[in-house]
Amino acid sequence: MTVVANRSNVVGCLSTAADRAREMLAANAYVHWYERYDCGGAALMDAVECCTDLADSYRYMHRHVQVE
After folding, report:
1. Residue 45 CB partners (closer than 8 Å, separation 6+)
2. Directed axis angle between helix 41-64 and helix 10-26, to 10°?
3. Tens digit of each residue's pLDDT (9 = 90 or more) over 1-29
4. Which domain holds residue 54?
């Protein structure tokens, strides 16, 4: 997932997408479609965690950077 945004409201979208993807991975939903292209569940979970980290970074910056 690539995010090009300079807005703090993107955090909600990222968090929602990561949560839904995490739930789908836990249920093994659609994983077989990715495995046929050599992208297993571990790689997908890494991508979800990257998305979560990105949302956390946006939250951190929003709290700690003063807009002038």
Report:
1. 22, 25
2. 160
3. 455 566 667 788 888 889 999 999 999 88
4. 10-63
The Cα 38–Cα 35 span in angstroms is: 5
Kindly report the average pLDDT of the chain as a whole number.
Answer: 82
Cα 54 from Cα 5, distance rounded (Å): 12
Question: Per the domain annotation, does 1 fall within a domain?
Answer: no
Residue 53 lies in a domain: yes
Q: Would residue 4 count as lying in a domain? A: no
The structural domain count of the chain equals 1
Residues 23 and 42: their CA atoms lie apart, in Å, by 14
The 8-class DSSP code of residue 6 comes to: -
pTM for this predicted structure: 0.70
Q: Dihedral angle at the C-alpha atoms of 55, 63, 10, 33, nearest 10 degrees?
A: 0
